[in-house]
Design a protein that fits this description.
The structure holds two protein chains of two kinds. By secondary structure, chain A is α/β, with parallel strands linked by helices. Chain A is built from eleven helices and twelve strands. Chain A is about 30% helix and about 20% strand. Chain B is built from eleven helices and twelve strands. The chains are: A alpha/beta, B alpha/beta.
């Protein structure tokens, strides 16, 4: 599988609090602003036609990472190579006008909030076609109709406004808009979080069909591990901005190697649970100016030792294709 | 289940007056819950889970009206009780954890004060001790550093923390019945597990009856003793959790279980439930509100909806159960 997307040592830091005032600057008394490390030294690849799941708790940086890859945000450091080109260098502000925009598209978390309330479903889907492919007239409406059919959206709903559509129908509009310009990479940020299970299964199956038909690669952000398990080839687990584990989804779920992944999987509700539940205690460490020498999971980790507060564990291969950032990973049967 | 239920709701019907007509949101809802029991109420959005809770607590929207039914709570019919009686019961005997804790908490009052307010209102502790008790409650729901956190405003706390404050608030007067409306929606799985463990632990410790409203079948399966499945304002099936998952009797329950992602199922095996709920404003709603979506539908489904008892506090509302 050739890599379509290569993320290399990607960082994104946000300055927080008020910037130093003019007087402080003039007197050279300006204190450096605290930095929130949202994405910290993240590297992974997405192959052609592959689906990579990004999982982790809220605040772990998965949405920031998704927005960096979708080029809605600029990275502080590192490279985002797409088809060999470092698109991280193109400023997010000008990315919409670049020819790359049509090749990477995004489906947002809440279909309700991410579609213009004053656009009909037709205009929502037509928008990227008009802007990026300069389609108009009959060719445009033909294309929109085809997209609606592909996404299982009845054509008679195309003249409706978002408030006249159900949650599942809005999700379909959001997907149709994202695939309208035939992107090679689709970033999906919790596309089914707001949907009922009965609708969720339909949307997930639609995504799988589209992936097969159009040969797209997916980056699938979700906190629903059962969904990730069903849809993804590989999974990347994040904790406080850093990747703690990555590997083939089936293997990671069957044999998690990082204690955090283990706790995450143990937290999935399970009928007829046998034995004690593995639970995390304590609060996560602060993501603001974190120490580079303390494992981010230290303090909540059931395994933590002195070593964890003296050296950050690097992301290392523990088995073919399995990377783990832990000083004491679980043994994986080869 | 103990002999006398803590709460017995029978034949509850609720209507909402809207510009587009009268919405028959609930129709003939019956639920019972015993001491120390945890009852899950599950169903898709719009099935009437929250409306049932609001009706029981007498906090329905002004457009809503209870048109029929009883809700017996320790000798009082909550649906006929006057406002002062309800106000005295709410927060003391009947408590609720709301869906969105940030919206349910007072944004401009320190969380410790908010808990103290409830304690003082119901006279459970003298005014001078209320602040101390509030801190104790925060410690009980495992908020680290409760003394400092009692001084925090809701916006200073994370979603999981706000939910814990909400639980501390709801449990401060040791209620007999707790209704938790989607207590973990919007929280992470790890936080969700911690919150649900906490509710289950406190429920057991205080012998409290708990109704957990959720759309997450997996969550209900892990924590609840019994589950009531709702669809379009009807309770279509009630059964002990294990029995419900082992052998669902209502076609809707069956579909709902089949649509929930599970570790062992493949994506293709996930069922879809075709169609939506019927328009509850229509002058003539099918007697079985699931019949337009049901593959087992026959002409006799249009007759009155049966509610077939199945023993062991189980019931199915279907003419052709599985």
């Amino acid at each position: 599988m050739t890599a379509l997307l290569e993320i290399e040592r990607l960082h994104r830091r946000f300055a927080i609090g008020a910037p130093p005032g003019m007087l402080a600057k003039a007197m050279k008394r300006a204190k450096p602003q605290p930095l929130l490390h949202a994405v910290d030294d993240v590297s992974f690849t997405v192959g052609k036609g592959e689906t990579v799941g990004l999982v982790g708790e809220s605040g772990c940086g998965k949405s920031t990472l998704a927005r960096l890859i979708a080029r809605l945000l600029d990275p502080t450091e590192g490279a985002i190579r797409f088809a060999g080109e470092d698109i991280g260098k193109i400023p997010a502000k000008g990315f919409g006008a670049s020819p790359w925009r049509a090749r990477i598209q995004m489906v947002f978390q809440d279909a309700q909030d991410s579609i213009n309330p004053r656009f009909t479903a037709f205009d929502t889907i037509a928008d990227p076609l008009r802007r990026l492919l300069k389609l108009a007239g009959q060719r445009l409406s033909l294309q929109v109709n085809t997209l609606a059919d592909q996404c299982g959206l009845p054509r008679e709903l195309l003249s409706r406004f978002p408030h006249q559509l159900s949650g599942g129908q809005k999700a379909r509009v959001g997907i149709a808009r994202a695939i309208a310009v035939q992107p090679e990479l689709l970033i999906l940020d919790e596309p089914t979080a707001a949907l009922d299970v009965s609708v969720q299964s339909v949307i997930l199956n639609l995504l799988v069909d589209l992936r097969e038909k159009l040969g797209m690669s997916y980056v699938f952000v979700s906190h629903d591990l059962n969904v990730v398990r069903l849809l993804c080839d590989r999974v990347v687990v994040m904790y406080l901005g850093r990747i703690v584990e990555q590997g083939p989804a089936a293997e990671v779920f069957a044999n998690p190697a990082h204690p955090y992944t283990k706790a995450l999987i143990a937290a999935i509700p399970e009928p007829d649970r046998q034995g004690p539940r593995v639970r995390l205690s304590g609060e996560p460490r602060s993501p603001i100016d974190p120490s580079p020498d303390i494992c981010r999971f230290h303090g909540r980790c059931p395994k933590g030792s002195d070593r964890c507060s003296q050296a950050m564990p690097p992301l290392a291969e523990v088995a073919p294709g399995r990377l783990v950032a832990c000083h004491f990973p679980e043994r994986i049967a080869a | 289940m103990s002999a006398v239920p803590v709460l017995a709701v029978a034949d509850l019907a609720v209507e909402f007056k809207t510009r587009a007509g009268i919405v028959k949101a609930l129709d003939g809802v019956s639920l019972t819950i015993g001491k120390g029991e945890m009852l899950g109420v599950v169903g898709e959005s719009g099935s009437g889970k929250s409306v049932s809770a609001y009706a029981i607590l007498g906090i329905l929207d002004a457009a809503g009206r209870v048109s029929r039914g009883t809700a017996m709570f320790g000798g009082t019919d909550l649906l006929k009780a006057d406002e002062p009686t309800l106000q005295d019961l709410r927060g003391r005997e009947l408590s609720m954890i709301f869906q969105n804790p940030r919206a349910a908490l007072n944004p401009i009052r320190r969380v410790g004060k908010q808990i103290a307010d409830v304690l003082i209102r119901h006279g459970s502790v003298p005014r001078s001790e209320a602040a101390g008790r509030a801190i104790e409650m925060l410690a009980k729901v495992k908020i680290p550093d409760p003394v400092r956190r009692a001084q925090a405003y809701p916006f200073e706390l994370s979603g999981g923390m706000c939910q814990r404050v909400m639980i501390a608030l709801a449990l401060s007067c040791k209620p007999t019945l707790l209704i938790a409306d989607e207590p973990t929606t919007g929280l992470d799985v790890t936080t969700q597990a911690a919150i649900m463990d906490l509710i289950a632990e406190l429920a057991e410790e205080q012998g409290m009856a708990t109704i957990v409203i959720t759309h997450d079948l997996g969550l209900a399966a892990e924590y609840c003793h019994r589950i009531a499945v709702m669809h379009a304002g009807h309770v279509v099936e009630t059964a002990p959790t294990r029995a419900l998952f082992a052998a669902p009797h209502h076609p809707y329950t069956h579909k709902l279980i089949a649509a929930t992602p599970r570790p062992e199922a493949s994506l293709r095996a996930l069922a879809a439930i075709p169609g939506g709920m019927p328009d509850l404003r229509a002058p003539k709603i099918p007697t079985c509100r699931f019949s337009p979506r049901c593959q087992r539908y026959t002409a006799d489904c249009d007759g009155p909806l049966p509610r077939i008892p199945l023993g062991d506090a189980a019931m199915v509302a279907c003419r052709h159960p599985l």
